[in-house]
């Protein structure tokens, strides 16, 4: 697709041929003098000589004008061809530079591009000219080629659109889609468990509650634990001093 469409794009970017030069003006009729139109031979001979001189001069001027017109047309055609070649070279150079960047970014870019070419090989250059023009002339052209190479059905769908402008519109929609920032990935790691914080009474029973509700063994163990905690706190206070 890219090779064939490139040739079509090159033909499209060439300047139209210059208009053909206007034909030289047709000289006014200057018929040859006739002997019957003159009363004496001398006048006829003079008129004949003058007519011959005019005829030679007119033919020379006509040949000169035709030569100048041909040279001007050739010069204009060559200038148009030179400009078209320069413009096409600039497009090709920019494309190759962007393509190389894409190859550096995506290790499989060349393979994906080859897939795009293979999958769209059934279409002619006219059907894919607009697609290739967009790919080669836009800054995100390699990204478009990479996307279509991964989605060849979409490339075929666009190639089947008969209107080139509609094809360009479809390519623009893909470009806008690719330009959108990707949503941030949501972590699948569960959130850490935060321990409950609050007054000790919310999670522990007081000595009084244990004495009223619990057994004597539980009350004694809890009281001993309180004493040990108080003793440890007092020892820590002394060391700080």
Structural class: mainly alpha
As a percent range, the share of helical residues equals: 55-70%
Number of distinct helices: 9
Largest sheet report: none
Q: How far apart are the termini? A: 87 Å
Morphology: rod-shaped
Number-wise, the strands total 0
Radius of gyration: 47 Å
Mean pLDDT: 77
Parts with pLDDT < 50 across at least 5 consecutive residues: 198-203
The ordered string of helix (H) and strand (E) elements is HHHHHHHHH
Oligomer: single chain
Strand share of the residues? under 5%
Structure report:
The protein has 241 residues and is mostly helical. It has nine helices and no strands.
In short:
This protein has helices at 2-13, 41-105, 109-119, 125-137, 141-150, 152-159, 164-179, 207-213, 216-240. Helix 1 packs across helix 4, helix 3 (109-119) crosses helix 5 and helix 4 (125-137) packs parallel to helix 7 (164-179). It has nine helices and no strands.
Key features of this structure:
9 helices; single chain; 69% helix; 241 residues; mainly alpha
Give the topology.
Elements: H1 2-13, H2 41-105, H3 109-119, H4 125-137, H5 141-150, H6 152-159, H7 164-179, H8 207-213, H9 216-240
Helix pairs in contact: 1-4, 3-5, 4-5, 4-7, 5-6
């Amino acid at each position: 697709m890219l090779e064939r469409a490139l040739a079509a794009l090159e033909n499209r970017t060439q300047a139209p041929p210059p208009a053909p030069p206007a034909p030289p003006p047709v000289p006014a009729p200057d018929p040859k003098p006739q002997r019957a139109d003159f009363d004496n031979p001398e006048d006829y001979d003079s008129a004949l000589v003058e007519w011959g001189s005019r005829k030679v001069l007119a033919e020379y001027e006509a040949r000169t004008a035709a030569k100048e017109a041909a040279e001007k047309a050739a010069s204009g055609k060559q200038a148009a061809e030179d400009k078209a070649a320069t413009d096409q070279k600039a497009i090709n150079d920019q494309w190759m530079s962007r393509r190389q960047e894409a190859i550096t970014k995506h290790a499989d870019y060349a393979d994906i591009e080859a897939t795009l070419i293979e999958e769209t090989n059934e279409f002619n250059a006219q059907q894919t000219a607009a697609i290739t023009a967009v790919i080669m002339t836009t800054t995100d052209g390699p990204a478009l080629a990479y996307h279509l190479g991964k989605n060849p059905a979409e490339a075929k769908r666009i190639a089947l659109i008969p209107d080139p402008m509609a094809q360009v519109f479809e390519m623009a929609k893909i470009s806008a889609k690719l330009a959108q920032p990707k949503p941030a990935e949501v972590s699948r790691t569960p959130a850490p468990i935060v321990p409950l914080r609050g007054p000790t009474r919310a999670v522990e029973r007081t000595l009084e509650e244990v004495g009223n509700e619990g057994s004597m063994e539980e009350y004694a163990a809890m009281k001993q634990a309180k004493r040990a905690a108080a003793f440890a706190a007092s020892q820590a206070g002394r060391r700080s001093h």
